[in-house]
């Protein structure tokens, strides 16, 4: 893959910018160089609809003059000195930020672990087309599927280099392969659609395209003729795909920036039980072949695996350098780089599974709603108030009775977290991983 991404050139760019910034008068600085190439193919009804190849190349210099900071970006590095001088001039007139600065040198990564981030298999448009067509054909073969909503396959390769004025230099390359299929069942005003997908770091880990297509078709067909529910209180089970959103709400609420701004409903809950007893949430930046795995964070800071929640008790915020300084804490390697700066966030976060299958959760709940799809983003991060549109299946005596739609689920995340019961069906493929989750006594608004 050296002909696609020249990592030594990336390292040279970042190093040249750092040296130029020091000469221009920056007290401290860092530079991040990112390059990537991607290829994607979309098909519909047996024909290629679109083939897209993209290449990106970007370098960003961030400088500090006292407690003032500024950042500049460029696609080409023809004039490092000019770019550095512009950044320093911008920083000198920027407002002071008391929490700005590079990471503590003692916290920088010294050794880089092998994390299996790069599969050297380069994909062609023909190979991606074959994968997408196979997934689509399998979806269309499902009885009841009337048409394809499209299928796709993709491949991406990225290279990242971070260099700082206090001596850090790190680099890595990562690959990603993916595919998806959307199936449409029924016709006219009774059509329903659903999808399935997979995304992996290594091509060999991808599911069979025919399985993706078949599941997409079956999911669409079982949604046909949905009924409406009357307003009521009911037990709710989120299948693992939908349950990732619940984990996402937790992740956002323990983000150090939200805590520092006092905009999180969990801001005063460190050391307290926020989930049910026995529940554990782990954030692992070193998960091999993980979707969010990385050898260093956006500041070059080393990280540890964090037991974010242990036996239901909150143990950690996600902290970058700025949020940690503002809170008087030590950063924990969770800085995400967004070009001009960093923000804290999770890496590979997992809500660990319980010991009950989906069928056992439904049997325990007796009657309730199985959520397979969520709509909207109705969550108040300050209060924890929760309101989301949903679709799925009504079940009674532990058995699915009928598909349902046009439902609103309401509650408060403080209470919902305390009533979480995790299933055993952990979907561990993505950066936010969770099993199915049951929550008793949710308010449902229907017809």
Largest sheet: 6 strands, antiparallel
Q: Determine the CATH superfamily of the largest domain.
A: PmbA/TldD superfamily
Instruction: Return Rg in Å.
Output: 24 Å
Q: Work out the oligomeric state of the chains in this entry.
A: single chain
CATH fold name of the largest domain, please? PmbA/TldD fold
Number of strands: 19
The CATH architecture of the largest domain is 2-Layer Sandwich
> What is the 3D shape?
globular
Q: Number of domains in the coordinates?
A: 2
Class from helix and strand fractions: alpha+beta
How would you sum up this structure in a few lines?
It contains nine helices and 19 strands.
What does this structure look like?
The protein is of the alpha+beta class. The chain folds into two domains: 213 residues, 2-Layer Sandwich (PmbA/TldD fold); 114 residues, no CATH class. It is 23% helix and 37% strand. It has nine helices and 19 strands. The strands form four sheets. Strands 3-2-1-4-5-6 form a six-stranded antiparallel β-sheet. A hairpin with a 4-residue loop joins strand 11 and strand 12. The longest helix is centred in the N-terminal third of the chain and has 18 residues. It is globular and about 70 Å long.
